[in-house]
Amino acid sequence: MTSVVVAYHSGYGHTKRLVDGAVAGASSVAGVTARTVDVSTIDDAGWETLNQAGGIIFATPTYMGGISAPFKAFADASAKVWITQGWKDKVAGGMTVSNSPSGEKQVTLQYLATLASQHSMVWASIGMMPGKYNEAHPELNRLGSAMGVMSEAENAPPEETPPAGDIETARLYGVRVAELAKKIHG
Ligand SMILES: Cc1cc2nc3c(=O)[nH]c(=O)nc-3n(C[C@H](O)[C@H](O)[C@H](O)COP(=O)(O)O)c2cc1C
Questions:
Q1: What CATH number should be reported for the domain holding residue 57?
Q2: Are 103 and 117 in contact (CB under 8 A)?
Q3: What residues make up the domain containing 115?
Q4: What CA–CA distance (Å, rounded) separates 131 from 142?
Q5: Number of domains in the chain
Q6: Tens digits of per-residue pLDDT, 17-28?
Q7: Span 112-117, mean pLDDT?
Q8: Ligand 1 in contact with 104 (CB < 6 A)?
């Protein structure tokens, strides 16, 4: 039995909706449990949950062209794990929401992949074609990201966005990370 943990910050709730999607997906994979850790309030039990995981999905809003400040505080605090390479070979993934179609989300995902690489983790690409190549389901990966899940808040409250297709994309990514974690960690 392995676990997938979504380590997230969400200031206003949009990112949390992707988090819930990914948890639903990961927990639907037989032999995998899924949990969340809010990195803005992480405690010793939260760190231990991450240390025990087979996969960690990092999720943060894009603020001012990058990860949010609470997420950066968590990333900096993870130096205590980095020094022991405690997350080596865990599967890693990334998800982010910004307001604009670009909004510099790529910068955020690049940072998350960099963080995962510093920890010697195994990065999980999104594993699905851009929506415009998916005739049956153009709403899946509609923003056409390869590195991880991108979503656009479109100036609406978290009750209205991200749209259902983005949440479904996050769910499928949760499935992918869980299956990869299971392959590596059993
Ligand atoms: C401090 C701050 C900075 C932001 N910077 C950006 C930005 O650089 N690009 C963008 O498209 N949206 C930006 N936004 C909008 C957020 O990315 C967007 O509202 C997102 O859905 C917030 O996610 P959350 O509800 O999980 O906090 C910013 C919002 C805040 C509060």
A1: 3.40.50.360
A2: no
A3: 2-185
A4: 4
A5: 1
A6: 999 999 999 999
A7: 98
A8: yes
